[in-house]
Amino acid sequence: MADTRLILAGCGKMGGAMLQGWLRRGIAAANVRVVEPFDAGRQAAADQFGVEALASPAEVPDSFAPDVVVFAVKPQSMDDVAPAYRRFAGPDTVFLSIAAGKPLAYFEAALGADAAIVRSMPNTPAAVGRGITVACANGRVNDAQRDLCDELLRAVGEVAWVDDEGLIDAVTALSGGGPAYVFLLAESLAEAGAAAGLPPDLAKRLARVTVAGSGELLYRSSDEPETLRRNVTSPGGTTAEALKVLMGEDGWQPLLTRAIAAATRRSRELAG
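Given the sequence above, the corresponding structure tokens read:
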């Protein structure tokens, strides 16, 4: 991957986290061009990562032929961004998008029908190298380009691929939004603890560390979540009593099923 020539469109939190991972994995800073319209963003990219930062794709010289162009801008900005990269489309360049809600057809329209495009959906734990990304390629992506995109995405966590692009909407609902649901769990635990009489600061601390520690245990363990749950639950004990409520007919599972369904529908609406 050291010789990969890469253009990164957008160097915000996600783009910056990915760039940091790529440099750690051996991509040479001299082979990277960051395109960032904001002065502060360009300066930060140059200072932090030692890469050349440009204000627009028009400033990328014709002599710089990228192996991959990564779109890491907000979806609402994509109409102003993607078409400007059409000149790089060709058999030797793959476009990798991490923007939610923008399907392959959108990029084919913006970049040309011959463009090799990978659509991906990462999640925010990528910022600490613990994300998971699901990706889908169009028919122009060859095996080498798919492998390159896979390696680039693995710089910030795990990667899975799907052939059916329609699954990306459910992925967005589950893993894309999932961190927010986990953070809400921590909020709700803290509120419940305070309602049970704990000082609010202690309740927040207990909730935060419990959620974080449980996630780490789940990550490191080879056991299924069901097994880990049962290991914590003594028959007739306090946890079992709480689980009667959480696993009841109006408990977490039907609630989360409705929530994921709602988010999936919204993702499809945004994709147009």
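The radius of gyration is 22 Å. Try to locate this feature in the token string yourself.
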